Amino acid sequence: MQISGEIKQVLSDRIKIITSQKKQEIDVFYTAKNEPFVKKLVPRERVEFSIVLESVEVKGTILGKIWLFDIIHPRPPLPLSRKKGDGDGNWADSKLNKN
Q1: pLDDT tens digits, one per residue of 35-64
Q2: What share of the chain is helix, strand, coil (3-state, %, to 5)?
Q3: Using CA atoms, how far apart are residues 44 and 64, in angstroms rounded to an integer?
Q4: What is the rounded CA–CA span in Å between residue 16 and residue 51?
């Protein structure tokens, strides 16, 4: 499932966004795995998230808790490759240096 909107606030355990379509304020919770990417988000930034819903019972009422699964836009940078020579020049340089 996906959700898009504008960031209102980034807190220590959740992101408050205002949805694009209905202008509703929604809390999207995130885990430690996503924290480095979430900390780079800024208020008033347009975002699109892939989310997962969790059902939570509060005083006999079943509510939905929204969890961040992935950031679709803006796309977080890919982690650096662990390949030897990656980032130390181009492909041709790495082939020439082997001899």
Answers
A1: 999 999 999 999 999 999 999 999 999 999
A2: 10, 45, 45
A3: 25
A4: 14
